[in-house]
Amino acid sequence: MSIAYLSTAYLGPIQQYTKMVRYPEVRIETAENYIKQTYRNRCVIAAANGPLALSVPIVKPDTLKCLTKDIRISDHGHWRHLHWNALVSAYNMSPFFEYYADDFAPFYEKKYTFLLDFNEELRRMICELLDLHPHIVYTERYEPEVANDFREAIRPKHEGDDPDFHPRPYYQVFRDRFGFLPNLSIVDLLFNMGPESELYL
Description:
Blueprint: E1 3-7, H1 14-22, E2 25-29, E3 42-47, E4 50-55, H2 79-91, H3 97-104, H4 115-130, E5 135-138, H5 175-178, H6 186-193, H7 197-200
Parallel strand pairs: 1-2, 2-5
Antiparallel strand pairs: 3-4
């Protein structure tokens, strides 16, 4: 059976969700040493002034190496309020934001201790909205050499590392200002395309 390996991601990019459609089994990496400045704790959305990165602040680990599953979310800086306001500001004019807003709002009201739990509850909810039913397995130990390894291929500014991913344009609210912005967070596709998102993927 063909298996894809993915890192956890905060409102992961479209590229990541295409793997959940394509592969019969997806293994989410939990036993790696956490890597900063990746989609693990950030997403990119299309805001009125262009692409906007939203980062979930994390508690700095006590050691140089810390497993992804042990990374804790920091309450620093009212980030939940800021992220929700950014999503509302960016997408309140999109065709489907109002339709899905009530599904997302609770994630910015509840406090989560661990980044992995927050990411995965969001991913499960998004998969339900997309009518995707990937077979997800969480890794228990890190295997460095595996086939279909997208743990590092799917990361900001490295879309070219995945020859199977060819983003096609779809409707975006600010496309007239910035042109089409490829491989944004899955929420960009969902809020702009609604139920057609599954067909796009």
